[in-house]
Amino acid sequence: MSPLLLLFAGAVAALAPRLAAADWPVRAPRLAVLVWLALTSAMVSSVALAGLSLALYWDRTHDLVDGAWHICLDALLGHHGWPGRVAAAAGLLGLVLLAARLALSAWRLLGAQRARRAQLRLLVRVAAVPGALPGATVIDHHEPAAYLMPGGADIIITSAAVERLDEAELSAVLAHERAHHAGRHYALTHWMRLLSQAFPWVRCLQLGRRQVDRLVELCADDRATRSSSRLDVARALVTMAQPTSSSPPDGLLAIHPGDSMERLQRLLTPPPALSRTRKALLHGAVATLLLAPIGLATVDRYAAWLPNLLPL
Known about the structure:
70% of the residues lie in helices and 4% in strands. The chain is built from 11 helices and 4 strands. The model is unreliable at 58-79 and 305-312 (pLDDT under 50). Helix 7 (185-198) packs antiparallel against helix 8 (203-224). It is globular, with a radius of gyration of 24 Å. It has one domain (2-309). It has helices spanning 2-21, 29-55, 64-76, 81-127, 159-164, 167-182, 185-198, 203-224, 230-240, 260-268, 276-309; strands at 128-129, 137-139, 146-148, 155-158. Strand 3 (146-148) and strand 4 form a beta hairpin. Strands 1-2-4-3 form a 4-stranded mixed β-sheet. The protein is mainly alpha-helical.
C-alpha cells in the first residue's frame, strides 16, 4: 500500500497548479490558506507514512504499538526475507532523508529569523524616534515602510510613512500589521517556507509558499477594513507600495508592491462571498486531505493482516 500513499501524494501535488489558478481564493483568502496548508501537509505526511509503512514491513499480525520497532528490526535483519529487508531499508532511508531535510531547513529558517530580528532591534536602537506614534516604533528613514517584528507584536514604521500618510491611512497601516499578528501569519508563512526550502524541487511546495504569502496579505487587508474604510486601506497601500530604492527583507510581513494591483482592485471592488455550500465543500476537502493519509496507512495495515485473519 506504500505505492498507494505515494500515488496519493502525487495526486495531491498535481492539484496545486489548479488551486493556484482558481479565482475563489480571492473571495475567501482565509479558507484558501487553510486549503494550502492541508494540501501541502497531506503530501508530506503521505510520503512520511509511505516510508514508515516500508520501514515497518511485516507479513504477519503484530501489535502496532508494542511490536513496531521489533518488526522494523526483524525486517532489516532479513527475518521476512530479502523483500522485507529491502523495503525496510528503503523506508528508513526515506524517513531519515525527509527528517534531515526538514531539520536543516528549520535550522536555516530560524537562523535567518534571528538575524532579521537582531537587525531590526539594532535599527530601532539607532534610529528610533521615541514617543512619535502610539502603538508603533518610528524609525528615521527616507522611504515609507512598515514591518511587523518577526516573532512578536511590535510594529516598526518609518518616519517617511508617518509623514506621507494622513491619520486615517496611518491607522489602516497599523491595523494591517496588527492583523498579521492576530492571524499568526508569521507561523503560517514560516511553515510554508520550511517546506519549500527543504524540498526546492517540489513545485507544489513552491506554489504553496507564494500563494500563502499572497493570501495572508489579503487576510490582513480584510481585517484592517473592520476598523478602517476600504478606501483608506487602498490609499495607504498605494502610498506604501510606491517604488523605492530598496525592498523589505525576504520573510518580513510588510506592505510592499507585491500583488498590489490585485489587492487594490479587491479593496475598491469587493468580490462576492462564497456560498455556504461551497464553503462546506471546501472544509470537507480540508478534512479529507488531512485524514486521507492516515486512512490509507490504516488500510495498508489491515490489508497486510487480512490474509492471516481469514480461515484456511
